[in-house]
Design brief:
By secondary structure, the protein is α/β, with parallel strands linked by helices. It has three domains: 150 residues, 5'-nuclease (Rossmann fold, 3-Layer(aba) Sandwich); 72 residues, no CATH class; 211 residues, P-loop containing nucleotide triphosphate hydrolases (Rossmann fold), CATH 3.40.50. 31% of the residues lie in helices and 18% in strands. It contains 14 helices and 18 strands. The strands form three sheets. The chain has a six-stranded mixed β-sheet with strand order 3-4-2-1-5-6. A six-stranded mixed β-sheet has the order 7-10-11-12-9-8, with no helix packed on it. β5, α5 and β6 form a beta-alpha-beta unit. The longest helix is centred in the N-terminal third of the chain and has 18 residues. The N and C termini lie far apart (58 Å).
């Protein structure tokens, strides 16, 4: 049965601010049956932003291309709106309205004339008067713009379509604690066997349908149980016990796991079948140290990867210190203090080497680690590399896609960050590229995720993280 089109009075009219289009160029097609309006000031601001090689300039040019395609197919009289529906965007049944005439609507006297934000608010007020029975809503990523709109009695919203989750507490953690009666409810027809030093359990029961592939399950009691889910469907699941990296016998470049989650992380990082790992956690949980230790082990000892490539978003915490001299590697060095700090820790573990031995080891390690800038990643393909993307909470979903698709055969990508420390404007915990990939990759057989909970840096750092 075909879906009946809603009456015009039931659909809303959304007025888009420039920052929404610059944030997500496809937002033009994201409002389904509702209509959208672009004020003339928005088109002028897009024109001003299109020059340059930044992500904002690229998005501005993409929006212009989309608008060109839409307007080219439009009838001569565009006052009645232009249909947004195409073969690629079948859900966009609304229409696009461009401001073709000056809206003679007086703004309150305390709003400065000629300012783009105020001109857009004037358009919203004018449209509300023209369509008194219709819901006219301003959509903006600018909090102050939304506050001004509400102060004028206008309806205003944030742009929600890019949000993966409304509440980041619902984000997949990669870990599940098993209930106390787990073996009673899931162990009746259980099969188990030992292979390559690991015990495998074929279980069946009600919890199996809620598990994800490469999710870690654990049970803390008299006989602690830690395992990873290898296969699952609605009724059955296959679990495999883990390598215990809390033991010095299984140390990784001199590092041992200090807690349960760190043990899970090392099991993911050292599994050659896992190509993509995401690590979430606050400062001091050991994300960088564990990732580097696992990378050095697989690059210098087992020779699984040819080199380690580290990159991160260069967003300063304070004032920007300006342009830096030197090569790409030298320019990135000030941003990589965390790398040097962790290498100091990894290099101290060999007490017998002496000063000369430690210096030689450090030179060998640095020769295998390349620091790259995000700006030069487009078009590259990395073969047999161990790629670390640090501070990835500051990446947009589109930037994250650009980076992860650089991976060639035999390459492992590790993304880590803390979504509580986002420094990029217009990104929130729900719309960060890190949140996006954690949600999209869960359950993939060659990907894994862990949220680290316990800080292991120092008692001072742990206490500061709790009370400040």
């Amino acid at each position: 049965m075909p879906k009946l089109k809603k009456a015009v009075s039931d659909t809303k009219l959304f007025v888009l601010d420039t920052n929404v289009l610059l944030h997500d160029p496809t937002s033009l097609y994201r409002f389904e049956e509702h209509d959208i309006c672009l004020p003339m000031f928005v088109l002028e601001e897009l024109d001003n932003k299109k020059k340059g090689m930044t992500e904002v300039a690229r998005n501005a040019r993409q929006v212009s291309r989309f608008l060109d395609e839409i307007v080219n197919d439009a009838p001569r009289n565009i006052d009645e709106g232009i249909a947004l529906q195409t073969d690629m965007h079948k859900n966009s049944t609304g229409r696009l309205f461009l401001q073709t005439s000056f809206i003679r609507q007086e703004l309150p006297h305390n709003l400065e004339l000629g300012k783009a934000d105020n001109a857009i608010l004037g358009v919203v007020i004018g449209l509300q008067h023209q369509h008194p029975t219709r819901s006219v809503i301003l959509v903006s990523k600018d909090i102050n713009m939304r506050i001004k709109a509400r102060a004028l009695g206008l309806e205003a919203q944030d742009y929600f379509n890019d949000k993966v989750l409304e509440d980041t507490d619902l984000l997949y953690s990669g870990v599940l604690e098993l209930p106390g009666d787990f073996w009673d409810t899931h162990g009746r027809d259980m099969k188990s066997w030992i292979k390559d030093g690991h015990t495998y359990y074929q279980i069946s029961g009600p919890l199996c349908g809620a598990l994800f592939i490469n999710q870690f399950v654990y049970k803390e009691d008299d006989a602690p149980f830690y395992a990873i889910v290898l296969e699952q469907n609605e009724n059955t699941a296959l679990l495999r016990t883990l390598t215990d990296y809390t033991s010095t016998k299984h140390n990784v470049w001199g590092i041992v796991a200090r807690n349960r989650e760190q043990n899970f992380v090392l099991n993911l990082l050292l599994d050659p079948e896992i190509d993509f790992v995401t690590l979430l956690g606050q400062a001091g949980t050991g994300k960088t140290l564990l990732t580097l230790a696992a990378g050095l082990m697989q690059t210098l000892e087992t020779k699984l990867y040819s080199e380690i490539i580290i990159t991160r978003v260069t967003v300063p915490v304070g004032e920007d210190i300006g342009f830096l001299p030197g090569t790409e590697e030298e320019k990135m060095t000030p941003w990589m203090g965390a790398l040097d700090d962790n290498l100091d820790v990894l290099n101290k573990n060999d007490e017998e080497a002496g000063d000369w031995g430690k210096a030689a080891t450090r030179d060998l390690i640095r020769s295998r680690i390349k620091v790259k800038s995000l700006n030069f990643m487009r078009g590259r393909t990395f073969l047999n590399k161990y790629i670390i993307i640090d501070e990835s909470q500051n990446l947009t979903p589109k930037q994250m896609k650009t980076l992860i698709t650089r991976a060639g055969p035999g390459t492992k990508v590790v993304c880590m960050g803390n979504i509580a420390q986002i420094d990029t404007p217009y990104l929130s915990e729900g719309s960060s590229g890190l949140t996006y990939v954690v949600d999209r990759f869960k359950g993939w057989e060659h990907g894994g995720h862990i949220t680290l909970l316990r800080g292991e840096r120092s008692r001072l750092a742990d206490h500061a993280g709790e009370v400040l």
